[in-house]
Specification:
single chain, binds adenosine-5'-diphosphate, globular, binds magnesium ion, four-stranded antiparallel beta sheet, 26% strand, Rossmann fold
Length: 246
């Protein structure tokens, strides 16, 4: 069904090179990929395969050396730096391995702060509850576990209701129980919040991880190697976070 929708993200023949010593490293080597509204995509691949580079390109934090990037039908390679910043702020929620929270603000205030900058945010209270942090809402990051801090980071990404959420190794620093909880927070949002929206307005979620088990949760699993895509597999019945063997 997703295939009838217009893609949110279309990457074609993407090449990304970084200078390295006297030569260059090719982090993306002719990669093509299409991502649709509402899709939950997991990108797997060994360390160095180009996953983070791909995510940084989709999030317009970095630019391609060559190739095409279209998001919401727009040629992103033509945007100015300012337009790229507006795109990131309005349309993308980022979650990283590190939590990047403001240490002086409570959990609630960390989320509130982002909600205030958004055009049409979700309710802060509802999002805090959805990620399971209702009882910790008044605590500062330093008073919370790693898993709880990551849930605030997720709440921040979710609350601004972006059309795209990008997560780079969000559970890499967490133990297996916290990882499951964090993945459950994502899953809950993706499945429940998206159900309330028209298919063409649903949030696409791209999660990058070297962990193959996490891929069982995805609608679509993309496997990368040496800057290329080795396989793309659609899963009709994705597994829920609590069933994962992490
Ligand atoms: P992954 O996230 O899958 O571990 P990366 O996208 O971080 O892979 O890296 C892909 C390749 O590009 C690696 O060889 C890495 O060393 C190289 N690379 C990534 N970012 C840079 C950079 N800023 N400068 C130079 N080389 C880089
Ligand atoms: Mg990486």
């Amino acid at each position: 069904m997703a295939e009838e929708l217009k893609p949110y993200i279309r990457i074609e023949n993407a090449i990304k090179e970084f200078p390295s010593g006297s030569g260059v490293v090719r982090a993306l080597d002719g990669l093509s990929l299409v991502i649709y509204p509402g899709e939950f995509v997991v990108v797997n691949g060994e360390s160095g395969s180009g996953k983070s580079t791909l995510l940084n390109i989709i999030g317009c934090m970095d630019e391609l050396t060559d190739g095409k990037l279209e998001i919401f039908g727009e040629d992103m390679t033509k945007l100015t730096e300012k337009e790229r910043t507006v795109f990131r702020r309005r349309d993308v929620g980022f979650v990283f391995q590190e939590y990047h929270l403001m240490p002086e603000l409570s959990a609630n205030e960390n989320v509130e702060f982002i909600a205030e900058l958004a055009d049409d945010p979700l309710s802060v209270d509802e999002v805090i509850e959805a990620v399971g942090l209702k009882d910790e809402a008044d605590r500062r990051p330093g008073q919370l576990s790693g898993g709880q801090q990551q849930k605030i980071a997720i709440a921040r990404a979710i609350v601004k209701k972006p059309r795209i959420i990008l997560a780079d190794e969000p559970t890499a620093a967490l133990d297996s129980e916290s990882s499951k909880e964090v993945l459950h927070a994502f899953e809950k949002f993706i499945r429940e919040e998206n159900k309330k929206r028209e298919p063409e307005q649903r949030t696409a979620f791209v999660l990058i991880t070297h962990n193959r088990e996490i891929a069982k949760m995805a609608d679509k699993v993309v496997l990368m190697k040496n800057g290329r895509i080795v396989s793309v597999v659609s899963q009709q019945e994705p597994c829920s976070a609590e069933m994962l063997e992490l």
